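Supplementary Methods S3. Input chains for the assembly prediction are listed below.
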Amino acid sequence: MLEINQLSVEYRSRKQPPHLALDDVTLSVAPGEFVVALGASGCGKTTLLNTIAGFVAPSRGEVRLDGRPIDGPGHERGVVFQKHALMPWMNVIENVEFGLRLRKMPLDERRRIGMECLRRVGLSQVAHRPVYELSGGMQQRVGVARAIASSPQVMLLDEPLGALDAFTRESIQELLLDLWSDAQRLFFFITHDVEEALFLATRLIIMAPNPGRIVHQIELPFSRAYLANRDARATKASPAFIEMREHVLALVHETSATEEMH
Amino acid sequence: MASTHGRTLQHVDAPDPVRPPGAAQPAPARAPNKRRRNNAALPGDGETWTISAATLVVLFALWWCATHFGWIKPLFLPSPAATLDAFVSAVKGDTQGNTPLAEHVEVSVIRVLVAFVLAVVTAVPLGIAMGTSRLVRGIADPLIEFYRPLPPLAYLPLIVIWLGIDESAKITLIFLACFAPLAMSAKAGVRSVAIEQINAARSLGATRWQLLRLVVLPAALPEILTGMRIAIGFGWTTLVAAEMVAATAGLGQMVLNASNFLRTDIVIMGIVVIGVLAYCFDLLMRRVEAALTPWKGRM
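Predicted structure tokens for the full assembly:
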């Protein structure tokens, strides 16, 4: 259980007035939920993820995982970044098993787990290739495999598909849903793509900037529908999906429009 | 809108979606590869060795003409043949002091290498400490920035007064020339590590020491190796200055000694030997660079 209580994060710098990146955010997420945070840039969604990851400390309030307050990064929370996060001096399998190596797991054991994770993201055949020879989509799959290798309770994904082309995005979206349903972990995913958000989320949170806050929460059925029928196109083309897309787009435009009037 | 949907539909219907994107898919978020492609539109791309070889041939021909037709007096510019003669007799040890060229080379290479290695093992750790610690950076930055632009000849007398005229003074001078670029590049390398790489390692449970050893150090390696190339170049640059005082052998000493006797042929021969040696070391460093950091410029 992930609990965020009245969390505020303020960035202070000497040259500018303090900036309230997150203001009084309260959120409670159970294991097995797929939470997607959607919002324009500057709404604090990355700050929220970084606080859960432990990279950023709360200014006020707290984040608790299973009752214990978070006071730094830890391997029970896996993070997937948008880019630049793989280590090019290691090959694919060494990147995947890196977390296990940090915890001094013997080579044969961590190699077995690493290969299993690579198989689950569909990259077994490139295990010994250098990561810089892979395409952007394959690099992101390696990033996902590295995160799941530590069997985290929480997966934090910071716009992991933002730099990929549409086809690659769709195949990785489906991969993420499979990984999520297999392990029934808690996924927290950031995006600014409305369709991606609707397709993945069981709970969508819409955020607004200045100060960063949650303005809407919506429960969504589409990811579970996809896992039942395995037809992404039919799910995304269904009238209910299109109607919800227009509704969410209206909400997003509304929040950013009121923002511009300030 | 409808047509877009139609096209996407075909793709998704095709194979198993969990399969990795194959070669048919474009590689999207990857930086263009600047090194290997000749057809890439970057200005200045492509191999240069034919042009470089032609330049050398033309230069050599000009040198030969200038001396052969008497445009320049041999005192100022000896002919290629005379320079080659000087080289041959130097190899035989047929010069002032009767020291064979091989010994001059050996003494100089040892001086440069010893100073360079000492600089690597001290400056790289210091540079990494400067990159990771505010305290160390605060202390070392002004000191290095102060002495770095000073000409070695300016502080050579001081070093001779402090250390005497034996080998330690010569090595110290070359060491100081190598030290600053190495420390600077190690510091810059540490500062260039992507925050995502640091955060990724921290979220996987890396301790501070693991972070330094397994992430920061390898990520800084490309910059450190560039610094090593620059540093060994500075080492060769300082060699003649280092061998100015009380040296009995060494390429710098050989050139200085020959200039006292207006043996321009030996001076030019010595310069060419130093240049070729330094170039060979640079080629070696490039091989090391390519072997240790093959991802450089590709990630």
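The radius of gyration of chain B is 27 Å. Chain B touches chain A through 40 residues (CB under 8 Å).
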